[in-house]
Design brief:
This protein has helices spanning about 5-10, 20-30, 120, 170-180, 230-240, 245-260, 335-345, 350-355, 365-380, 405-410, and strands at about 1-5, 35-40, 45-55, 60-65, 70-75, 85-95, 100, 105, 110, 115, 150-155, 205, 210-220, 260-265, 275, 280-285, 290-295, 300-305, 305-310, 315, 325-335, 385, 390-395. It is an alpha+beta fold. The chain folds into 3 domains: about 1-40 and about 155-180, Phenylalanyl-tRNA Synthetase, Chain B, domain 1 (2-Layer Sandwich); about 45-145, Nucleic acid-binding proteins (OB fold (Dihydrolipoamide Acetyltransferase, E2P)), CATH 2.40.50.140; about 195-395, Phenylalanyl-trna Synthetase, Chain B, domain 3 (Phenylalanyl-tRNA Synthetase, Chain B, domain 3), CATH 3.50.40.10.
């Protein structure tokens, strides 16, 4: 697991602490750490830029005039090269993943610096086109001034977290560090769930409550599929995810932040959710386009009588989020840890979600995760709204246990 110190700073102040000190104290007091990655040691001189002119010089390449901290002449072979595009640019002498960028000649033209794809900039894994800045950034700004780019990433040995499901998220480590350094812990924002109480319920049926302790469903309409804000993409990439679009990214963002896996379905393909096991061996195509032979008794999420996801592990191809999606069904649930673990072994696959569900997650976090997702989505896509009340089937409600003791008894130990 990777911990972003910039992200951690949202919840407990660590910006004034040497990352190496945090690294060492976490190893001694919480979990084994494996290394520190400093982004600034690999990348430098990346700034925002606008393409002022783009003249095609052959079937693939463009000669561009780029405005950044000053004007540069740059050759670009990206298919989305066009005048007016605001993107990222590395100046001559800057570094991309420890490789120095020098001036180069191409077809008799000098290219000073380089226009960047998301992969080249270290933001996502998309190498197919220039990274487009969709937010209203001025040109000539260093990337570290507009997002958490110059971050320190501490890598944690996952094996040392097996007994600590509360540490499978940034916030869990913020709680630990707040205790270690005796600093206040800030909370994260969620939306008030009461606003949906007047809406109709969406049909959800749990047929096996021994394998599904809690299931929360949220129907959201007027969703616009788009690129996530820059800082969300940067934070996700730094913690091991590949940004895709705002909906998929927010499910990963919430999971990485508080440790609660979420799954988003295209609501246009959902009429009724049923949680039940397979009654016979079944061939099922998962999101990664692989046809998998699922054994009998595997817990599945169904749309009426059609399976659409392997519970706690991976969604199905038929209900995935696409560019055409305009409404979403969000799942936030708690599944039996032993069943998820056995299913991953039988399927031969482990995912970020299953890795967390295997650790006996707190069912209380299921509602928190759903409310955090809605809060973040409203900030990115304010036109989105719920069409049904937040449906919550909870077969394992929290019971407050009070332990009575006294000082004399404790002092005796």
């Amino acid at each position: 697991m990777k911990i972003s110190l910039k992200w951690l700073d949202d919840f407990v102040k660590v910006s004034d602490i040497d990352p190496k000190e945090i690294f060492n104290l976490l190893t001694m007091k919480t979990a084994e750490t494996e290394g520190i990655y400093e982004k600034k040691d690999y990348y430098s001189d990346i700034i925002t830029a606008r393409i002022l002119k783009a003249i095609k010089i052959d079937n693939k390449h463009y000669k561009c005039v780029v405005k950044a901290d000053k004007e540069y002449n740059v050759i670009s072979g990206a298919p989305n090269t066009k005048e007016g595009l605001i993107t990222l640019f590395v100046k001559p002498g800057g570094y991309l993943n420890k490789t120095k960028i020098a001036e180069k000649s191409f077809a008799g033209e000098v290219s000073s610096g380089m226009l960047l794809s998301g992969k080249e900039a270290g933001i996502n894994n998309d190498f197919s086109k220039l990274f487009e800045l969709t937010e209203n950034f001025e040109v000539g700004l260093d990337i570290s001034s507009i997002c958490d780019y110059d971050d320190s990433i501490i890598e944690i040995d996952n094996k040392s977290l097996t007994h600590r499901p509360d540490l499978w998220g940034i916030y869990g480590f913020a709680r630990e560090i707040a205790a270690i350094f005796k600093r206040p812990l800030k909370n994260y924002d969620i939306i008030d769930s009461s606003f949906s109480e007047s809406l109709p319920e969406f049909p959800i049926e749990i047929k096996d409550s021994k394998l599904c302790y809690r299931y929360i469903g949220v129907c959201i309409k007027n969703v616009k599929i788009m690129q996530s804000p820059l800082n969300i993409q940067v934070r996700l990439f730094h913690t091991g995810h590949s940004p895709k679009n705002n909906i998929i990214d927010l499910t990963n963002y919430v999971m990485t932040e508080i440790g609660q896996p979420l799954h988003a379905f295209d609501k246009n393909y959902i009429e009724k959710i049923v949680v039940d096991t397979l009654k016979e061996e079944t061939i099922f195509t998962t999101l990664d386009k692989i046809k998998r032979n699922l054994p009998k008794n595997t817990l599945m999420i169904w749309n009426n009588e059609k399976p659409i996801a392997v519970a706690g592990i991976m969604g199905g191809e038929d209900s995935e989020i696409s560019d055409a999606t305009d409404s979403v069904f969000l799942e936030s649930a708690t599944f039996d840890a032993n069943h998820v673990r056995k299913s991953t072994v039988l399927m031969g696959i482990r995912t970020e979600s299953s890795s967390r569900f295997e650790k006996f997650l707190d069912p209380v976090n299921a509602m928190t995760g759903a409310l955090r997702f809605i809060y973040l989505l409203k900030k990115i896509n304010p036109e989105s709204h719920l069409t049904h009340k937040i449906t919550d089937l909870n077969f394992n409600p929290f019971i407050k246990n009070v332990i009575h003791t006294n000082y004399s008894f404790i002092k005796g130990f």
